[in-house]
Amino acid sequence: MYSDTQTRPSSAMRKAMAEAEVGDEQRFEDPQVTLLCERVAELLGMEAAVFLPSGTMCNEIAFRLHIRPGGDEAILHRTSHPIIAEAGGPAAFAGAMMQPLDTPRGMFTGEDVRGALRYPDRYSPRSRLVSVEQSTNMAGGRVWPLSQLRGVVDVAHEHGLRLHMDGARLMNAVVASGVPAAEMTRGFDTAWLDFTKGLGAPLGAVLAGSASLIDEAWRYKQMLGGALRQAGIVAAGALYALDHNVDRLAEDHAHARVLAEGLASLDGVTLDPGEIETNIVIFEVDDPDALCAGIERHGVRMGAVGPRSVRAVTHLDVDAEGIQHAIEAVRQVLES
Ligand SMILES: *Cc1c(COP(=O)(O)O)cnc(C)c1O
């Protein structure tokens, strides 16, 4: 349970992949890739989309699309993936200056963005991009309410800023809130979906935006070596995921609530189960490393993600029995 990246392709998904009709993706001749891009563009309410090997490449290319080297600044949460987990890519690849926000729960408001804007003079970096993570990863799978997204979009537009949505777990947010994906992405210039998290495919992500931005994204896909060939083998897995693995994310969310309630009842755990909205449970203990090492001996893996924090993530390879087993493992280790 240390991440929902642990999902493995099911036999039905593998069958769909094995039987996929394929072609050269770089020549737009792979029918699975073409279909996948069309479906994701429509789902996200965008004109066009491009298939990429990973979510990280979606973020990196999007930052490169929006940021011009020369002092452009991105406003985003301090715990967001481009800051903590992309090897400094936005600085190296886009030349981005990053302004991390320290607002609660991995989310911020339009007023927070307003407060972060630079004065437009020659001394200041140029405010250029706002990036949000839906759902929040390291803040515990929180779902940005639609009104809060709209507030951020309004302030960004008022000041001519671009908007990017990291949708690694966007479908978790959609299933949890009942708000359609295209409503959440409204006003954003780029947004993407990851197929390797809860959706259960082995690799692949799709970045969507206007036709002109996606044309330009293809240059960077080429530059990074992300232009592929018979990628339909993997795109077929992603298409299978869209058809079969979206609604079932609700099960992962239910499992996360059961896990959170079970953990919260243990001595030595600090956690408010009412905070759990999707598939991520972050809780506090005195010694996260010792707990994680201890439960591993019971066959349970969670991640120590801070001096007091442990993260557990539910996904399609964790069932109700596994949740009970995990709670019991944590109980035994804490008691010993
Ligand atoms: C996993 C993740 C990414 C990166 O996706 P990869 O497909 O693993 O490269 C980006 N943003 C968030 C919020 C993530 O959780």
UniProtKB/TrEMBL annotation:
Positions carrying N6-(pyridoxal phosphate)lysine: K197
Pfam family, one: Beta_elim_lyase
Record's keyword terms, sorted: Aminotransferase, Lyase, Pyridoxal phosphate, Transferase
Domain of life: Bacteria
SUPFAM superfamilies: PLP-dependent transferases
Cofactor dependency: pyridoxal 5'-phosphate
Assigned GO CC terms: cytosol
GO molecular function, one term: L-allo-threonine aldolase activity
InterPro entries, per database record: ArAA_b-elim_lyase/Thr_aldolase, Low_specificity_L-TA-like, PyrdxlP-dep_Trfase, PyrdxlP-dep_Trfase_major, PyrdxlP-dep_Trfase_small
Stretches assigned to the Aromatic amino acid beta-eliminating lyase/threonine aldolase domain: 2-283
GO BP annotation list: glycine biosynthetic process; L-threonine catabolic process
UniProt xrefs under Gene3D superfamilies: Aspartate Aminotransferase, domain 1, Type I PLP-dependent aspartate aminotransferase-like (Major domain)
NCBIfam families, sorted: GntG_guanitoxin (NF041359)
Entry's family note: Belongs to the threonine aldolase family.
Name of protein: Aminotransferase class I/II-fold pyridoxal phosphate-dependent enzyme
High-level lineage: Bacteria, Bacillati, Actinomycetota, Thermoleophilia, Solirubrobacterales
